[in-house]
Amino acid sequence: MQLSKILAEIDLEISRLEQARTLLAGDAAPAVKKTRKAKSAEVAEEAPTKRKKKRNLSPEGRQRIAEAVRRRWALQKKTSAK
Fold first, then answer.
1. Distance between first and last Cα of the chain
2. CA distances (Å), 47 to each of 12, 36, 51, 76, in order?
3. Cα(49)–Cα(55) distance, rounded to whole angstroms?
């Protein structure tokens, strides 16, 4: 890691701790120190997240899964008994 990156992270952590202290102390306006955001954080904020549609299992699908799990358990029990 580069020294400048380490120092920037330390400065960011110090500002977070100062904000937490002012909130806990009950001061009226917490001092906010402006820092640069990491590029990955900027990209994450810009990309809107879409909610995926909830997928429902049919009773038949649920039954197929249950049977497959029972077969798997039986096989594991059979192989562990040997």
1. 53
2. 24, 19, 13, 45
3. 18
Question: What are the structure tokens assigned to 39, written together?
Answer: 């590029």
Residue with tokens 């701790």: 17
- Per-residue pLDDT tens over the stretch 25-45: 886 554 556 666 666 655 555
Token digits of residue 42: 């900027």
* Per-residue confidence (pLDDT) for residue 65, from 0 to 100: 96
Residue from 18, 14, 40 nearest 29 by CA: 18
d(CA 39, CA 43): 6
